[in-house]
Amino acid sequence: YKTIGYGHKLGKLENYTTMGVNEAKSLLIADFDRCIRIAKRFGYKKANNKQLAVAHAIFCLGEGRFKRFMDKHDFFYEICQLNGYFCGNKFNPSRSIQDSRNFEIQLFYYR
Predict the structure, then answer these.
(1) Which ranges of the chain does DSSP label H, i.e. alpha helix?
(2) What is the model's pLDDT at position 67?
(3) Are strands 3-4 and 8-9 parallel, antiparallel or unpaired?
(4) DSSP-derived secondary structure letter, 17
């Protein structure tokens, strides 16, 4: 899939060729607001660090992938396994992806 701005996943009807900083920020805010609503549907209704951590994970992973992990196990048990990406059939570990997962875990358990 294609992205633009700060990680906005392009929809089928979207066709951006350029984007200014303000437009990218507006899309990020709209996308993250959507992720907050999804986190609430998964039971994270209280506005706190857990809700933010889950919303961040939804933004990074996508709703479908997030749901698959929630259906299998405790999310933060499973998310520790998501520390890279596949290119073809080969798994490639990624330090930046691992850093994102560590951030989500620390935020989730921060008091």
Answers:
(1) 21-41, 49-61, 63-72, 75-79, 95-109
(2) 83
(3) antiparallel
(4) S
C-alpha to C-alpha distance for 66 and 61, rounded to whole angstroms? 6
pLDDT tens, position by position, 20-53: 999 999 999 999 999 999 999 989 999 999 999 9
- Measure Cα distances from 81 to 5, 36, 76, 85, 106 in Å: 27, 23, 9, 11, 15
Q: For the segment 67-105, what is each residue's pLDDT rounded down to a tens digit? A: 877 776 666 666 666 788 778 888 888 898 889 888 988
Cα-to-chain-centroid distance, residue 74: 16
| Two structure tokens written together for 100 | 């994102």
Q: What is the DSSP string of 23-40?
A: HHHHHHHHHHHHHHHHHH
Q: Which distant-in-sequence residues (6+ apart) come within 8 Å of 105 by Cβ? A: 53, 76, 79, 80
